[in-house]
Design a protein that fits this description.
The chain is of the alpha+beta class and about 325 residues long. The protein is built from 8 helices and 13 strands.
């Protein structure tokens, strides 16, 4: 009888542990816990690495890389995550690393997983390109509806807060760190990358994906490829993509460029041949992309995003 009770107890304990992994609630606070663990990638520089997954109630939208740089003049935050809760827990995690205050925030672009934590940084300057501010303002409400639907209770009290009003400088000296703000585009109409000349860390935002298929909802692939060529020419020592693990080489840039080049050529050829979207969706994805997370989901999305634009361009006799 005792052995049976012990076995039942062990099974119950394993079940509770498994539920805790799937739904990481913080019981004492009555709120979910992102369990943000800063990963140091260079002197003074940390990254929170998100899962290479879709949004879900299990991960609360924590599918994004955010980061921060600690300097004697204060902390610079790069992107604020998918929710108010994420932003708050990000600040708590930063405080475990340093007692220096956050003095500035940047949004690399206007997608919700990168700026919905802005509320957690009240009163601080939040830098973003004008195109990003316009996107945050115009699309924030629709983004919020989708984020609440996909992520559930993690989004409690989250409202889209656009960046601004401070303009983005070309360069900034912050506590001995020589920072360059790179005004690029392609993933969206405005993609802000940050290059720290002092440490060699490049925060590329969603211009770069690592071992994950890129998202293309607002993409202009030709401009994106131009931006990747520019990033590849920088003398970085650490590359932080918007999604996927940081890297000490240019492999994530090469991966992203290879996938986008294939995607662009494949869809463009299909449109020029008069094939419809149903035909494109049946096309095989090259085996070399099998290692990209979510490629089987992102490819159909990209067809729906990009094929209509290519069709309009062909009808109008222009190059998209």
């Amino acid at each position: 009888m005792d052995e049976a009770r012990l076995e039942c107890g062990l099974i119950l304990l394993a079940l509770v542990f498994a539920i805790g992994l799937l739904f990481p609630w913080r019981a004492e606070a009555g709120e979910p816990d992102y369990r943000l663990a800063p990963r140091q990638v260079a002197p003074d520089t940390w990254v929170f690495v998100g899962a290479t997954e879709d949004f879900s109630p299990r991960n609360g939208g924590n599918i994004v890389n955010t980061g921060f740089i600690v300097t004697p003049a204060g902390v610079l935050v790069i992107d604020t995550g998918p929710s108010l809760l994420y932003g708050r827990q990000m600040r708590q995690a930063i405080a475990r690393v340093t007692d220096r205050p956050v003095v500035q925030v940047i949004n690399t672009h206007h997608h919700p997983d990168h700026f919905f934590g802005n509320q957690a940084f009240p009163g601080l300057p939040i830098l973003a390109l004008p195109e990003t501010v316009r996107g945050e303002t115009a699309e924030g409400g629709a983004f919020a509806d989708n984020m609440y639907r996909m992520n559930g209770d993690w989004m409690k009290d989250t409202e889209p807060l656009a960046a601004g009003p401070a303009p983005v400088p070309d360069r900034l000296e912050l506590g001995g760190h020589r920072l360059e703000f790179l005004r690029l585009a392609g993933h969206t109409d405005g993609d802000l990358a940050l290059f720290d000349r002092t440490t060699g860390v490049l925060f590329a935002g969603d211009l770069v994906f690592h071992d994950r298929a890129p998202t293309t909802a607002h993409a202009h692939i030709r401009r994106w490829l131009d931006s990747l060529a520019y990033l590849a020419g920088l003398p970085f020592r650490v590359l932080v993509p918007g999604h996927g693990m940081p890297s000490q080489d240019a492999l994530p840039i090469a991966q992203t460029r290879d996938y986008l080049t294939w995607l662009d050529a494949s869809l463009r050829q299909s449109v020029e041949e008069g094939r419809d979207m149903a035909d494109m969706l049946r096309d095989p994805i090259p085996a070399r992309f099998d290692g990209l997370a979510l490629v089987r989901k992102e490819y159909p999305r990209s067809v729906s995003h990009l094929a209509p634009r290519f069709e309009r361009a062909v009808l109008e006799g222009v190059r998209p």
